[in-house]
Every structure is written in structure tokens, then in C-alpha cells.
Amino acid sequence: MSVAVYCFSGAGHSLSVAKRIAERLNAPVCLIGQAAFYGAETAVIVFPVYCQNIPTPVRGFLLSVSAKYVVLIAAYGGISPGNVLREASDCVCGTVIAAAAVPTGHSFLSEPDGGENSFLSPVIERIYRPQKAEIPKLFKNPFSDFFPAWRSRVGVKITCSSQCNDCKICEINCPMHAMHNGRRKVYSLSALYPSVSERRAAVYAPPRSERISP
């Protein structure tokens, strides 16, 4: 069975999760946006949750994936991942055999990714014993789809360093259009969200008795 790990990461948290999975699978990590889907039988797709939404580059990649089996890993740094796993599963044409919402550090906070590894064993097992997973529909904030690029800047403070020359390359290249002049004057996020150590991964993988034929 050929397995590849695909990852989109803005701040590095999702990449950290992807590397942990790839190490266990002895598989390469391919960055979404820099590498196209190349035909692995099983695709493990790791992506961050932005305001309870799937990042735009990831949504496009999900629609292009033609793997027989798919594993979805959503890394979130806020209070809730919302319904992204169910929405992502609706985008792929292959069989989703496992999914997990993994708590990590928030993109705009200086906190570690937490090192949450409880999701690894059940996910790895499903990769080697593929079974169709049922992804439940979870609550999604009704305002999460309104002005997501603007909302990604609200509640954070982004500042320019003294090395900034006002080239606006960050604003031009940001795939989520979340940068605006490199700064935003609003309150801190640290008091709004529980620390990453207080959150646990949610894993959706079927029991062994429901194995499907390869």
C-alpha cells in the first residue's frame, strides 16, 4: 500500500502534526500548494482550521485528490474545529477511513503545538486496516462563513518588525488574504482560548469488525 502525507501549514503547527504522522508511516510529507497529488493509494491530508473553515488552498486540493482511501487530520488552535472534518469528507471522492481534530497552538499565539499524540495509534491502525469512517456533523458557528478573511484578523495583534520595508509581499502571498499592512490593533487572544494542554484530540475511526475489502 502506498501512503503519502499532504499538508498545508501557515504557522507550522499542522506541519508538526504531519511530520509526526509521516515518521510513523515512513512516508514523505508533500506541501499542498507546492506539490500535486501524485497517485498514492492512501492520502493523509493535514490542514489547519481557520475560523471553523477549511483553508481555500486545502479545499481545492481535496477536490483534486483521487486516492482510494483518505485520512483527514484537522489541526485547530481555537475553541472548536467546528464541522470541518465533515465538510472535508464531502469534498473527497475516496473512502474516508479515519479523521481526527487535533488541538495545536493558535497561529497568532506563541504557544507550542502541545504534542498531542493520542490520535496517532487509531489513525495508523486504520491506514493499515482500511474501514469506512462515519464523520458526525458537528456544530458550526453560524457566523463562521461571513467575511472569513476579515474575521481571521479580528482579535489578534500582528506587528511588523524593524526589518519590514513595506514591500507588502506577505499581504500579496498570504493564501487566506489575512494580512493587511502587517499590523492589527485589537485585544489579545490569550484570554479567549483555553491553552493547548487543556484540549484533547477527537478521533473518528470505525471498530475493527467493520473492515472493508481493499
Molecular structure report:
The chain has 214 residues and is α/β, with parallel strands linked by helices. Helices cover 22% and strands 16% of the residues. The protein contains six helices and six strands. The protein has helices at residues 13-25, 56-64, 84-91, 120-128, 148-151, 169-173, and strands at residues 3-7, 29-31, 42-48, 69-76, 95-103, 202-204. The protein has a six-stranded mixed beta sheet, sandwiched between helices. Helix 1 links the parallel strand 1 and strand 2 (29-31).
* Oligomer category: single chain
Biggest sheet record? 6 strands, mixed
Tally of separate helices? 6
Backbone shape: globular
Question: Which sequence of strands runs across the widest sheet?
Answer: 2-1-3-4-5-6
How much β-strand is present in the residues? 15-25%
User: Mean of the pLDDT scores?
Assistant: 77
Structural class: alpha/beta
As residue ranges, the low-confidence spans are 183-198, 208-214
Distance between the termini: 10 Å
Give, in order, the helices and strands: EHEEHEHEHHHE
Overall strand count: 6
Q: For the CA atoms, what is the radius of gyration?
A: 17 Å
> What proportion of the residues is helical, as a percent range?
10-25%
